[in-house]
Design a protein that fits this description.
This protein has 463 residues and is an all-alpha fold. It has 23 helices and no strands.
Amino acid sequence: MTRTAVVVLACWAGGVAACAYYNGMWNAEHLASQARKLEGQDRVAEAQSYWAQAAVKAESVVARHPTSRWADAALVLEGEALARSGACAQAAAPLARAVDSVRDAALRERARLATAQCALEANDPVGASRAVAGVTESRDGGRRSQAALLAGRAAAQLGDADGAADWFRRSDAPAAGPARVRALLAASRVSDALSFADTVARGSFQGEAWGAMLDDVRRAAGADTASATLDRMLARRNPPRGGRARLLLADGDALLAAGRTADAAARYAQVAALVPDSSEGQLARVRAIRVRAVQAESAGDLVAVSDQLERLLQRSAAGTAASDGRTLAAQVQRVRQWDDLPETGRFQLAEAVRDSLGAPRLAARLFLRFASERPRALFAPKALVAAAALWPERRDSIRAVLDSAYAGSPYTLALRGEPSPAFAAAEDSLARALGLTVARPTVLLASRVPPPVPGPRGPLLDG
């Protein structure tokens, strides 16, 4: 018999009150069913909306028919729906009542699972573990699997990575696979994690979970390994275009940050071709232009970058893509103003091209240009040290210039690993010239000065 037929019979047998009761409960369970379906499709935000509606319907049934035979089911659904809609504060009371008073074992287990979920969101892994105790041995496979997933998350929050990995192994929930990989990585079992990562795509697509897992793979094994893992996962599973585009875009960003400009450009091209009119597609086109800026070796190379950006911003970019595009355009324009800048401004611009624009070869040329144009500047040897770090092929020739023209410079001495009391004074002078605050240590202890390491200094190149 269909649910609709049940409602009709209930209305016939019990009158208006029974009809309203059964209709309200049917609506609540129907909305919950739709929410579960959306969750299975990785449409979490839409699912939360349906859960919120289900909670309202279930709460109405509890309030109007507190002694009906389905009141317990309505109470559990109310708490469960509130929890899964993200309203754990409101879910606490109905869930506590359900755990304490509901007699049906299956309903109690559902209430405990929702209680554990809210405990985890409140960063209470002990409470979550207590809530799922017993449910992990449930006779129902679905609830047993969900309990293992939540127990694994609780173990992970407690810092027990190996224990978390074992719990996730016992769960068939779609989110358990990526979570197990992350737990194995946290336990420094990188080889095991990478071996298992290839099987994650056998389950349903979980965009957020896949993305978090790949982020952890990048940190543990590098951008190239994560990129190859993503390729294998996408070969097994063809996720929705939007989710696929977001994963590819994030992979491109990671490859670009790792200096793999050609691979990053290829990822951005994939995204632009896959979802050309989406926000991800627009952002990918801006990032592809940024790759060209990163690859630039001279200010002249940035002319084409500027032209491309102008056309893109005028034609179609909006939202984040437009904002990023304007930021990049300002960075490029600043580089083209080199001749108009004072000495300190030129040095700071070279640092910003390295640290903010992320164009190592262009930054190296600007550092060399600074040293060539201002050979008597206190910071000329520091500019040469920075250029040597960015241009390995010319490192020996640059060091030769340092040894011959700036042998006594504190920066040259520091590069050799020799002590130089003047090094700190030179750094302070540079900081003051750049308008930065100089922090004075209470006690100065120095025996040997390590080689200077180029890195971020001062404001980012943001126009």
